[in-house]
Amino acid sequence: MFHRYIVVCIFAALISSYSSAQISIPDRLSLGDAIRATLESNPEMDRFPIRREILSGERETADLSPAFTLNSELENAFGSGELSGISGSDFTLAISNVIEMGDKREARVETVNRRIDILDAEQRVTELDLIAETTFRFIDVAVAQQRLNVQTEATELALQTRNLLEPLVDAGQAPQLEIVRADAAIRRAQIAQRSSEADLESAKIRLSTMWGNQAPEFDAVDTNFFETGTAGSLNSLLLRLETNPNIAIYADEARFQEARIREARSRQNADFQWSAGLRHNRALDDTGLVFSMSMPLNMEERSAGTLRSARSSLQEVSVRRESGLNTMRGELYALHEQLTQAISEAQVLQDEVLPLLTDLIGQTQQAYQAGLYSYIELISTQQEYLDAEFAVINSLSKVHTLRAEIERLSGEPLGSSAQGER
Q1: Nearest to 150 by CA among 359, 386, 352, 400
Q2: Residue 420 has pLDDT above 60, yes or no
Q3: Exposure string (b/e) for 381-410, b if CB count within 10 Å is 16 or more?
Q4: Please, what sign has the CA dihedral across residues 116, 122, 124, 126?
Q5: I want to staple 260 with a disulfide (CB 3.0 to 4.6 A). Which of 272, 310, 363, 391 is the partner?
Q6: Euclidean distance between the first and final Cα of the chain, in Å?
Q7: What pTM was computed for the model?
Q8: What 8-state DSSP symbol labels residue 286?
Q9: CA atoms of 27 and 217, how far apart (whole Å)
């Protein structure tokens, strides 16, 4: 019911710009509508443009060359004897700068760029999480709708039973006590129906909060709830795991650590600092050029720790990626097995059990009217029928939830036709 939107909306989200404008919510809400509203308006997405702007500023700073420095120096002044005052002083005015060696500026910029890539990957992970959570809450609304439908049917069935009893009681074919029982059953059914209405409203509120709205503007969700679809190919799903944003982000982290390694290596190249200017000797009233150059020593040793740290971090990324893949593979195997069983259970309940009980309830009513069955047998058959309907809803809820969880892991639709309207 809910699967194909996950992949579609992930790609749509990557090319969309997030807008704070008021979104339009239809009366009958599809899963696609819900996901688009979430990606456009969920507050969780607001932090990414801010963080991207922060990193853009850091990249501008990283791309700057060392600044020129203006130096002035006064020597041999305000001393004693011939050096008293400034008559024998030397005044120097010079500019200085650092010549970066080893492509340090490019390495700095590359490191920030890789951090931006990680931010983009984090955004894709967040989008996937929001899509999954929206899907789960959408399923909750669909389930609540179906439960309310069954509970409404239970109330109607209780009213029909009382109407069936009245002529029998009037004719003396059934005791007055059964009318009392029927009235009590109606009250219980009405209470349960109101409770289901409250559950549905609560589920709708939880769904609408995904796009920042605490007052649902839609009346119902639009789905093909009773279609189960298939479990799909496990091998195909396993192959798609590596494209999951939760795994793909490790590639961006690895590139970031590689950039750190290149930056650390660039720092092993010593920079040259030069200075050039003019010096005026007041005593001689002469002016001459001054020039100096310096460079630090043992830079390789000073950068060794940073380089070792970056290399170890790169190895850690690989280990975490394999660990994450292993965990996700295990989850996928288990979820696929559960989905296969849930689909089989739902199909048996829908295609075999429920039709039998539907026929049985009509036969039981006829037999009761003919005096062949008691009131207890009548309401017992009705309850079995209602229990079977609730069992169908529960099994389908499990099917759709498992399917959504599998698609969150694999990013691949399972090929079922059970989906809401776009």
Answers
A1: 386
A2: no
A3: bbebbbebbebbbbbbbbbbbbbbbbbbbb
A4: negative
A5: 310
A6: 11
A7: 0.81
A8: E
A9: 7
